[in-house]
Amino acid sequence: MSFRSWQSYREFSREVKHGNRYIHGANVTEFLSQVLMTSKERIRTVQTGSFFWRAQLGNDWKPVYVNGNKNTEEPVPFPPGRMKPVKFSAPEERANPKGIPYLYLATDKETAMSEVRPWIGSYISVGQFKTLKKLHLIDCSIHHDRGVVFFIDEPSEKEKEQAVWADIDKAFSEPVTMSDKSSDYVPTQIIAELFKNEGFDGVLYKSALSTGFNLVLFDMNSVNIINCFLYEAKQISFSFEETAIPYFVTGSER
Q: Which are the contacts of 107, defined by CB distance < 8 A and separation ≥ 6?
């Protein structure tokens, strides 16, 4: 048994976003079964005592006293309790539905800060977390560097699997924006819950905004925050690549 097509993730995504979302038909059930079967080759173990990072835009303030009188305030990082999602108040995100909080972390602080997309001069509170137990994650990032691939005819079983998992990683990696619709998150939320239901601790995927990796943990109590830092964004750079044929205006259309 294998994926029906190299486009199986895309077909699954269309079905759960625009067809049946909660009651799955045979094709969706078959797809999820195959995702689970092939995920066994993508299990990654994180040892107890490993370190990860989480960033949030913003900061707290500490009063500064001169001769016993409050003179001014200085910026400080958010307190530890502020660096985890509030239980039962989690917003809709890439892996979790609204009201069910997961913890989003990164493998390095630079990636964590890039993920919150700061502007120049903004303060960023950064927490360092330490794992309290051995974690078993599903690594979606194996084929991240595959790039855009298109097949005219159905490829081999192995190439189908690689193409599907590359699409899954891309779906998790795609940055969350304010213009996203909640339905955009449904495919990855279903896949994350599939792994959660099988007893895995979370999902690992490549960051689209930095060189590191992101992970989402289903149990926020599987890590403990040990340090809080405050950073200020000093420089932001962009890189652009043309992805479509240009449209030239000629003659009277100018």
A: 52, 53, 212, 213, 214, 215
Q: Which two tokens stand for residue 43?
A: 């299990």
pTM of the model: 0.87
- The 3-state DSSP class for residue 138 equals strand
Is the confidence at residue 163, as pLDDT, over 70?
A: yes
- Alpha-carbon distances of 174 from 93, 115, 167, 250, rounded to whole Å: 11, 10, 11, 37
Contact 231, 166 (CB under 8 A): no
Spatial separation of the C-alpha atoms in residues 248 and 54, rounded to whole Å: 45
Is the pLDDT at 195 greater than 90? The verdict is: yes
- Residue 177: CB atoms within 10 A of its CB come to 8
Residue whose tokens read 């689209």 = 208
Contact 12, 21 (CB under 8 A): no
Which residue type, as a one-letter code, is found at position 116? V
Compute the distance between CA of residue 72 and CA of residue 67 in angstroms, rounded to an integer.
12
